[in-house]
Amino acid sequence: MEHRPALDRLTEAAGAAAQQGSGDLLRIVLVVMVLGCILVGWLLLRGYRRDDD
């Protein structure tokens, strides 16, 4: 079996990520932030719409 340093670094990084936990709080905060930005953008753009009847 030949030595592949890139693969070794990848497996070490994956092992370190598994030890640190899943980061559920960060994921929730990011999802809420993105949804909030979408909502604020939609509300702001909705106000600029003109209904010229």
Automatic annotation (TrEMBL):
Keywords attached to this Swiss-Prot or TrEMBL record, sorted alphabetically, are: Membrane, Transmembrane, Transmembrane helix
Membrane-spanning residues: 25-45
Q: Does the keyword Membrane apply?
A: yes
Please indicate which superkingdom the organism of origin belongs to. Answer: Bacteria
Kindly provide the name given to this protein in its UniProt entry. Uncharacterized protein
Q: What organism is recorded for this protein?
A: Streptomyces thermoviolaceus subsp. thermoviolaceus
Taxon lineage: Bacteria, Bacillati, Actinomycetota, Actinomycetes, Kitasatosporales
